[in-house]
Amino acid sequence: MTKKIFIITGETSGDLLAYKVIKNITSSNIKIKGIVGSNLKKLNIDGPFESKDITFFGITDVIKNIFYIKKKINLAVKYIENFNPDIVFSVDSPDFVFQVIKKIRSNKKIKPKFFHYVAPSIWAWREKRANKIKKLLDKIYLLFEFEKKYFDKYSIENDFVGHPFFENFEKNQNNYNADSNIISFCPGSRQSEIKIFMPIFLEIMNSLGSKYIYHFAITNSTHYSVQKYLEDIDKSQIIITSDENEKKKYFTKSLISIAKSGTISLDLCKSQIPFFTIYKFNWLNYFLIIPFVKVKFVNIINIIASKEIIPEFIQANCNSKKIINHLHFLLNNKNELKKMIVDYNIILQGFSNKNTSEKIAQDLVNNLK
């Protein structure tokens, strides 16, 4: 008898995480559909629309597109109801995902199980969301062990599975080249992020001058926008990559990276290079969110360590002057760059080499029986 799984992803990172899981499900008796991105499409999975259609940045961006988002939620619900899956497997993007699940839960004609991957950050803000999450999900897969106590507190079934980016992780901090002349910039995957961070990156480049090669790690959708900001820069100093393998190659060769807060932080850790985390909301988003935030840091490495291992430049501190000052300090004290890698590798040991994707895939298959 054929069993069915429906996948919901929102961010590019969620699509990649889901891809790592689903490629381990090889049974011909399992039919899979979903709201997917470029990675899952490689597995010939399709659905009502693509995940890029529901990617928005910040509260104000969501508010401006609220009617469009509601339309997509209803479209997703109708498609899932017609597909009638045995499992709905959702990855990250809780604001969209949970609205879809809530509507499906209200339809008594179908009764899929709901499994969610990447826990909402109730430990960082709005912990009482857990009461609503409990009503929506059958199980949640946790990337980090420290999260478990928060979900246990609300009797939400959970499983600490580790982080899939570090399934075959080996420290190679001794390969770091402190004499490299490549500096990587990671401005994010949204147009709104490009507008915020590219002017800051340009000022950093102007400060450092022609001594360095500047590598920009971007997505296909932001390629043209990034190029526009770099029209007046010597092309021999610029490398722009959107291919994942090319990104990894230049990350590994980089002296340091300056990256928008997000999943990219763990990619940079895996590349074993030092980096800064930067982030900036528009001020309305910031003032709406900040009263609910319970953690001191935004980078997951710093949160787990309870101290700043990765330098953070957030909101008012996210300006070229402060970033440049600290960057010059580190470039003149390269032992500090090497120490950053040693320190974050200690944290990585807690959630690496857990066979994460295979473990989740097997659990999904077991729950289809």
Global mean pLDDT: 89
Q: Please, how many helices?
A: 16
Largest sheet, spatial ordering of strands: 2-1-3-4-5-6
* Percentage of residues in DSSP E strands: 15-25%
Principal-axis shape: globular
Number of strands: 12
As residue ranges, the low-confidence spans are: 286-292
Helix and strand pattern: EHEHHHEHEHEHEEHEHEHEHEHHEHHH
Gap from first CA to last CA: 10 Å
How would you characterize the largest beta sheet? Answer: 6 strands, parallel
- Helix/strand-derived category reads alpha/beta
As a whole number of angstroms, the C-alpha radius of gyration is 21 Å
Helix content: 40-55%
Question: How would you sum up this structure, described in words?
Answer:
It is a single chain. This protein is of the alpha/beta class and 369 residues long. It is 43% helix and 15% strand. The strands form 2 sheets. Strands 2-1-3-4-5-6 form a 6-stranded parallel sheet, sandwiched between helices. α11 (264-270) links the parallel β10 (256-260) and β11 (275-279). The longest helix is centred in the first third of the chain and has 18 residues, at 66-83. It starts with a strand and ends with a helix. Mean pLDDT is 89; it is low at 286-292.
Write the layout of secondary structure elements.
Blueprint: E1 3-9, H1 12-22, E2 30-35, H2 38-41, H3 58-64, H4 66-83, E3 87-91, H5 94-105, E4 113-117, H6 129-136, E5 139-142, H7 148-153, E6 158-160, E7 182-186, H8 191-208, E8 213-217, H9 223-229, E9 238-241, H10 244-253, E10 256-260, H11 264-270, E11 275-279, H12 283-289, H13 300-305, E12 312-314, H14 320-331, H15 334-348, H16 356-366
